[in-house]
Amino acid sequence: MAIRESFTYTDMDLWLNEKRVTEIECLVPDLTGVARGKILPRGKFTQERGMRIPEAVLGMTVTGNYPTEDAGYDRAISSTDRDMVLKADPTTITMVPWATDPTAQVIHDCYFADGRLVDFAPRSVLRRVLKLYADRGWKPVVAPELEFYLTAKNSDPDLPLKPPIGRSGRAETSRQVYSIDAVNEFDPLFEDIYDYCDMMNLDVDTLIHEIGAGQMEINFLHGEPLGLADKVFFFKRTLREAALKHDMYATFMAKPMAGEPGSAMHVHQSVVDIKTGKNIFSSDDGSASPLFKNYIGGLQRYMPSAMAIVAPYVNSYRRIVRHTAAPINIQWGMDNRTVGFRVPESGVQDRRVENRIIGADANPYLALAVTLACGYLGMVDQEDPTPMTTDSAYDHKIELPQGLPQALQLLRGEDRLRTVLGDRFIDVYAAIKDLEHQEFMTVISPWEREHLLLHV
């Protein structure tokens, strides 16, 4: 479901007039999930109907640097720093609730000068996967669950993060999973968040307190993947703004605090037949269909090679540790939260699988694209899953990459994922992540200074 169903450019102009919008934030999600773009006056936005920004904006690290001397990257991104043409998707138009003056925001798609979609842009990658489903008469349905931490403001990156002060005047010091009172500590913030989300039609569902101190989870209603990715993209931006208003930070880092659980983006996924509307994961007799098992088999077969996309930073792998409320392998099971792929108890039409490997720090467009790609390949190639795990998967061996270099090696070597996601995307993405890891390796951590400085 888009932010606004079936909006045309004419509808968008009428809506902007009704809201008396004076300026528009023209947004492009980059490979890190950061909002790039320009802010235009209303008149210029209507007149131009397509702004330009450099193609290399989609080829930056999270620190704003560019790979050099990488053959794949150089083949994909022009050395002349050429422009992309950006065209607004009217279905994503919404207000900016925290702006002082009437301001709208709208997500744009990226095009080459010849009219082709820029194939390594995150929205384009997801569209590519969705077309593969549509060509077979299938429509995937997803429901993300997004974990995050609220923290006290931290202006010095050398200092550890701390839980924020709630309305009681005290910070959390113990685990408060599912505590209503712990959520109520931040009532003013969450009232703003729900108000903002209502104004933006983000369709958020339930809010719960997770295991960690100051850790929360927001659930989205199920829907169409591109629309849900847009909503997660908007929500991350909205939450950070709302938290700043209340003198705290909100972070989607996979592991922001030592000694606390990491944050995930669990994604429930199913597939329906476009003609009949029936869930293809269920047979006519109500049992799990062969395609359902193949889908799980595809997740098991390809998710280790997709790890660099769903765990995109060096910090991401701090979350993938045994007995820390995060999966360490590709086991699957019924209503089992220790596995990588959980099958919740459900009715026939609601049969689905939950991918619990994805981190909250993942780009939502790319995370949905790659988990759907894994399932698609499983169904097309008729991959069989392993036997179902009925005990704790934490007692099984680690089957996921334990760091970004290993994950990138697996990603580059998996031809089937490259075919589905696109050569240029894989080349650009891997080059960026290589550079990010190189940048990280130039930093000396407090642990190294504490334990190695005088002892080795």
UniProtKB/TrEMBL annotation:
Pfam families found in the cross-reference section: Gln-synt_C
Keywords: ATP-binding, Ligase, Magnesium, Nucleotide-binding
Domain GS catalytic per the UniProt entry, residue ranges: 122-456
Cofactor(s) annotated in UniProt: Mg(2+)
GO biological process, one term: polyamine catabolic process
Molecular function GO terms recorded: ATP binding; glutamine synthetase activity
Family the entry assigns: Belongs to the glutamine synthetase family.
Protein name, entry field: Glutamine synthetase
Species this protein is from: Duganella guangzhouensis
UniProt lineage: Bacteria, Pseudomonadati, Pseudomonadota, Betaproteobacteria, Burkholderiales
